[in-house]
Design goal:
Layout: E1 6-8, H1 27-38, E2 46-48, H2 55-58, H3 64-75, H4 97-117, E3 122-125, H5 146-157, E4 162-166, H6 173-178, E5 185-192, E6 216-221, H7 227-245, E7 249-253, H8 271-288, E8 293-296, H9 307-318, H10 331-341, H11 370-382
Parallel strand pairs: 1-2, 1-3, 3-8, 4-5, 4-7, 5-6, 7-8
Helix pairs in contact: 1-9, 1-10, 4-5, 7-8, 7-11, 8-9
């Protein structure tokens, strides 16, 4: 296995653009790529521009009629068929939509192939992580589900155990749906509680089909959860399940919308806690998956202050060149930010909360604490199905 990480990048992914009033502004991708370059991380990873996913690959997850509907809307946005979730407020149709969505999917599929074949230990596609797309419908700013496609390709290549860990603020519903009946895929999603956030799924009781009982894990966190609670929840659930499952590949989704500045959600997590979970995922890959790690982006709508810093940390960790939280951000990048957005960029790679800390689950359970109640609900729902103590 090559020790060098791969960064999947093609400038054309910035064409994934729902329009000027949509929160998913592609400038977040452009600024992340520039910050990665400003720190010289693109010199210690192999930057790869993979081909777009072809139709046979897209059909590993998506229905043929849906792919045809996307292609039709891509050619003529005014004809978008709303029954497929296209042409909606969340997922407006735009010219070239099929091509750029397939390109993003192709980057994630190629990342999975590189890790599986040993061409890279780790591979990052921060343009990916579009985890809401369903087999037959667009949803939640997502057209093709690149995360599910990467996993499906790994299964096609012969993988028998794949763990997917999703720490986006929104439930990873599309990936869960794709593998609901497949015990070869363990999906774990930490997200804001469905009572208060789209897509209103991801309850602890969602544990997989009868044929795959315990293969879906959902940790629904109370609105307002901050660093200590978020990290306590992650470490109370994820490491034990991954250790038990012993995946051959770890696929992770790192939506940055858990951040306290994000305008579309209600958690209160800092950049420093996001970095701590990225480090934890890297360590889990090495401890239990032979180092094979595919890391994806996802949501994140504070596109200047949060997303570029969070995903640059992710690239640095995958590259074996982590950026220290206290590091000053290069002035040249901050000038680019102002020229591009007329906003002032952040000064450092930290929110001033490093090092972050949390209380281990083993330290005790408070039955009156809402965060502990959420963790307990997940452990009770899933752990016995996997032969573990709740």
């Amino acid at each position: 296995m090559s020790g060098r990480a791969q960064l999947m990048w093609d400038e054309a992914v910035t064409g994934y653009d729902f329009g000027p009033d949509h929160p998913m502004d592609p400038v977040r991708l452009e600024l992340t790529r520039r910050l990665v370059g400003a720190f010289g991380l693109d010199r210690v990873v192999q930057v790869v521009a993979a081909k777009a996913a072809g139709e046979s690959t897209l059909r590993l997850v998506h229905r043929e009629d849906y792919i045809e509907a996307v292609k039709a809307a891509s050619a003529d946005p005014g004809s978008a068929d709303g029954t497929y979730g296209l042409g909606t407020v969340d997922d407006p149709a735009f010219a070239g939509m099929h091509e750029v969505s397939a390109l993003i999917a192709g980057q994630s599929v190629a990342a999975a192939e590189a890790v599986w074949h040993g061409d890279a230990a780790h591979a990052v596609n921060f343009a990916g992580g579009l985890h809401h797309a369903m087999p037959g419908a667009a949803s939640g700013f997502c057209i093709y589900n690149d995360a599910a496609l990467a996993i499906a390709r790994l299964l096609e290549l012969g993988a028998e155990r794949i763990a997917y860990v999703d720490v986006d603020v929104h439930h990873g519903d599309g990936v869960q749906a794709a593998f609901w009946e497949d015990p070869r895929v363990l999906t774990i999603s930490l997200h804001e509680h469905p009572r208060t956030l789209f897509p209103q799924t991801g309850w602890p009781e969602e544990t997989g089909a009868e044929s795959a009982a315990g293969s879906a894990v959902n940790l629904a966190l109370p609105a307002g959860t901050g660093d200590e609670g978020w990290l306590r929840a992650f470490h109370a659930v994820v490491p034990e399940l991954v250790a038990d499952f012993r995946p051959e590949v770890l696929v992770t989704q790192h939506g940055a919308d858990t951040h306290f500045e994000d305008p579309l959600a209600h958690l209160a997590v800092s950049l420093d806690a996001q970095r701590a979970v990225q480090v934890a995922c890297h360590d889990l890959a090495h401890e239990y998956a032979g180092g094979r790690w595919v890391a994806l982006g996802g949501g994140g709508y504070e596109v200047v202050d949060v997303v570029p810093r969070s995903w640059t940390h992710l690239v640095g960790i995958a590259a074996g060149r982590p950026v220290a939280p206290e590091t000053a951000i290069p002035e040249g990048w901050r000038r680019d930010v102002y020229a591009r957005t007329r906003q002032l960029g952040p000064m450092r790679m930290t929110d001033g909360r490093w090092p972050v800390s949390w209380a281990d689950w083993e330290s005790g359970y408070d039955p009156a604490d809402r965060l502990d109640q959420a963790v307990r609900a997940t452990r009770r729902a899933v752990f016995p199905l996997r032969g573990l103590l709740a």
